[in-house]
Amino acid sequence: MKVRVAIAKTPADPSVQDLRALLRDQLSKIGVTDRLIKAGSRILIKPNAGVSTPSEAAETTDPRLVEALILLLREFAPRELIVGESSVIGTDTRKAFETSGITDVAERTGATLVDFKKERYRRRPVQDFLAVESIHVPELIDEVDIIINVPKLKTIGAVPVSLGLKNLKGFLLDSEKKLFHNTGLVKCIVDLSRTIKPQ
Q1: Mean of pLDDT values over 13-40
Q2: Rounded distance between C-alpha atoms, residue 38 and residue 34, angstroms
Q3: Shortest CA distance to 131 belongs to which of 177, 173, 188, 196?
Q4: Does the reported pTM lie above 0.85?
């Protein structure tokens, strides 16, 4: 499968408006806005707000990027914009949202914040699984039209690099996160990517 990718460099210390313009330009270049985003959609944004640290610590998605994306998506008249996360084990998701600056973004933009740890889940089989035959996923995943994965580019000890695939762990229950680490994280992340497929 061929995938189109757009890469752009931001100015130093970009404003929300800088990022909004950059996102519009890059997404337009790869045809995302024309073919994917429809009026009346329910859109789920999955940032990395897994830990309770300010964005300056470079561990979570920059709230300016989340806000720029929300403002851009508002131009397409969505029915609802949802920002969802299940923070790492031992961290309160609401606190992580607050510390990262994403709570303030939601208040300014009218986006709905969702703590997946408090949502209903259903078990979904994994096609051609490597490590786990099925994974619990939030029911909300089947109730939205678009899922947008907004990870943080960073390195961590658990895997060689943390990109969009590992960010999907923020959809999981804490018990499943533990299972992933005990079963073999890399293969479990592949299974997760075959189960939850952001657009």
Answers
A1: 89
A2: 8
A3: 188
A4: yes
Torsion of CA 175, 82, 95, 154, to 10 degrees: 70
Instruction: Tell the residue number behind the tokens 């990870």, with chain if given.
Output: 151
pLDDT digits (tens, 9 = 90+) for 95-138: 999 999 999 999 999 999 999 999 999 999 999 999 999 999 99
117-125 LR contacts (CB < 8 Å, sep 24+):
117/86, 117/87, 117/93, 117/173, 117/174, 121/173, 124/195
Rounded CA-CA distance 185/172 in Å is 13
Which residue reads 């790492």 in tokens? 88
113 DSSP β-pair partners: 83
For the cut 80, the answer to whether the pLDDT of residue 159 exceeds it is no
Rounded CA gap, 174 and 189, in Å?
A: 15
Q: Where are the alpha helices (H) located in the chain, listed in sequence order?
A: 16-29, 32-35, 63-74, 93-100, 102-109, 164-167, 174-183, 185-195
Joined together, the tokens standing for residue 199 give 């657009």
Q: CB pairs under 8 A, 24+ apart, for 6-10?
A: 6/30
Amino acid making up residue 59: E
Residue 47 three-state SS: strand
Rounded distance between C-alpha atoms, residue 156 and residue 111, angstroms? 30
